[in-house]
Design goal:
By secondary structure, the chain is α/β, with parallel strands linked by helices. The chain has 6 helices and 13 strands. The protein has helices at 4-9, 31-54, 89-101, 116-121, 139-146, 163-176; strands spanning 61-62, 77-78, 82-86, 106-109, 129-132, 152-155, 179-183, 191-203, 208-221, 229-234, 243-244, 251-252, 256-257. The protein has a 9-stranded mixed β-sheet, with helices on both faces. The chain has a two-stranded antiparallel ribbon with strand order 1-2. A hairpin with a 4-residue loop joins strand 8 and strand 9.
Length: 267
């Protein structure tokens, strides 16, 4: 840092002094240092994007959880496809789990209720997860940008989606080998999943803890094409996982039947 005297001796105009006559310090802007810091951030970001692109799962269909396979055509998530999940964040997380475990990058846009702990418990690789909880009115732009580097993008539509936006995003997903999962409605979704019935167990006569949720998940095709397909799932099971439920009345052991009933747990 130079003083006013030094600047004056070099031919620069003198800096006004205070009452004491002492030279006032001159703030020097380190443009070179700022440029270097910006370059480092850009280099780091490019390196991160390159890493994400190099680890994309190269398959015709992206894997999904075994419990959801009967609900999806071909038992997998179609590259370039779009899927709508009505309301259930846990069901949406489950859509990402298998692809994440296979090494795919996943992105979540506009879902502030997306829990890191729940995602980790479901098997989501947090090292390959990008979160943008509050993109504001730029949610579609952010979603489209992340589709360039993440193979599955989970987004909550925060505004009206027009057909042109859907077409452009679908083309980008096909080109990049990705898929979209929308939490809520999505125009032209290949499959729409919704919980049509659910029942929690674990609560007894006024006491206990919720342990697991038995749910009926219905899958309907684009524009209602085909008959809806239903599956009974534990969403979640007592251990926190999502899996197919044992049919009520299924034979267990020597021909006896077992019915899932609420189990009281002392508080």
């Amino acid at each position: 840092m130079q003083t006013a005297t030094a600047l004056q001796s070099s031919g620069a105009p003198p800096e006004p002094t205070g009452r004491s006559g002492a030279a006032r310090p001159v703030r020097r802007v380190d443009h070179l240092g700022d440029a270097r810091a910006t370059l480092e951030r850009i280099t780091s970001l490019r390196s991160r994007v390159t890493e994400m692109e190099s680890t994309r799962v190269d398959t015709e269909g992206l894997p999904t959880a075994e419990a959801l396979a009967p609900l999806l055509p071909g038992g997998a998530i179609r590259v370039g496809g779009s899927y709508a999940v009505q309301e259930s964040v846990l069901l949406a997380i489950t859509m990402l789990q298998a692809a994440s475990a296979a090494g795919a990058w996943c992105a979540v846009v506009g879902v502030p209720s997306f829990g890191i702990e729940a995602a980790a418990a479901a098997g989501i690789d947090l090292e390959r997860l990008v979160l943008v909880p509050d993109p504001g009115d730029q949610w579609l732009t952010v979603t489209a940008a992340l589709a360039d580097v993440a193979q599955i993008v989970l987004t909550r539509p925060l505004g009206r989606v027009v057909p042109g936006d859907v077409s452009r995003l679908s083309a980008r997903l096909r080109q990049r080998g990705g898929a979209l999962v929308a939490l809520g409605s999505w125009p032209g979704a290949d499959v729409t999943l919704r919980v049509t019935r659910s029942e929690w167990s674990g609560i007894g006569d006024g006491h206990g803890f919720l342990t697991e949720r038995r749910a009926t998940v219905s899958a309907s095709g684009r524009a209602g094409a085909g008959r809806p397909v239903d599956a009974e799932l534990l969403l979640p099971a007592a251990d926190g996982t999502v899996r197919a439920a044992v049919p009520v009345g299924a034979a267990v052991g020597g021909g006896s039947s077992s019915v899932l009933r609420p189990v009281a747990v002392a508080s």
